[in-house]
Amino acid sequence: MSATPKDTQAKPAPLWRRLAAIMYDSFLVLAIMFLVGFINLGIQMKVNGAEKLKAMTDSGQSIGGPFFYAALFLSIFSFFAFFWSRRGQTLGMQAWNLRIVDQEGGYISIGQCLVRTLTAIPAFLLCGLGLFWCLLDKEQRSWQDLLSRSRTLHIPKRKA
Fold first, then answer.
1. pLDDT tens string 29-72
2. What does the chain look like in DSSP terms, one character per residue?
3. What are residue 100's DSSP bridge partners?
4. 98-115 tens-digit pLDDT
5. How far is residue 132's CA from residue 124's CA, in Å, rounded to a whole number?
6. pLDDT recorded at residue 8
7. d(CA 42, CA 14)
8. Domains of the chain: which residue ranges?
9. What is the largest CA-CA distance in the chain?
10. Which of 38, 42, 138, 144 has the fewest CB atoms within 10 Å distance of its CB?
């Protein structure tokens, strides 16, 4: 069931909750990155052999090429797209009662997931400016929210 601002006590997510969820999810994303890296290392060992691979790394040559970086991005995007488009929440967002919704209050599309993921790169690389933007926006939207036409909401737990 998708929560909408109309049928719950949902409010724009405060920055501190967003940061807490990002911290939780960063551990999961880091694990995914390690897994992709280990798979790449295994492939490189098969293709180049251990001696050539050692010589490459000793000389400072990267063993990651365009396919590795594409696989890395695709893996990270898939993680977020799976959770955002099916539940509106990653595991970190669940812990902090956050949900991403589209303009009608439903789950976001894969296209919106892609826009959010691509927007997150400059948003974080510019010292988090894209995330801190929610402090300046009157509707408390980050760059990811604005460009993907979605909202990050705090959904308080319902009392039984």
1. 999 999 999 999 999 889 888 888 888 888 888 888 899 999 99
2. ----TTTS--EEPPHHHHHHHHHHHHHHHHHHHHHHHHHHHHHHHHHH-HHHHHHHHHTT--S--HHHHHHHHHHHHHHHHHHHHHTS--HHHHHTTEEEEETTSSPPPHHHHHHHHHHHHHHHHTTTHHHHGGGTSTT---HHHHHHTEEEEE-PPPP-
3. 152
4. 999 999 999 999 999 999
5. 10
6. 57
7. 42
8. 11-154
9. 63
10. 138
Angle at the Cα of 82 from the Cα atoms of 142 and 2, rounded to 5 degrees? 70
Q: What is the model's pLDDT at position 2?
A: 44
Nearest CA-CA partner of 15 in 159, 145, 148, 160: 145
pLDDT band at 151 (very low <50, low <70, confident <90, very high): very high
Which residue bears the tokens 């439903």? 106
What is the pLDDT, as a whole number, of residue 3? 44
Distance of CA 107 to the CA centre of its chain: 15
**Two tokens, residue 20:** 């807490």
Amino acid at 11: K
- What is the residue type of 59? S
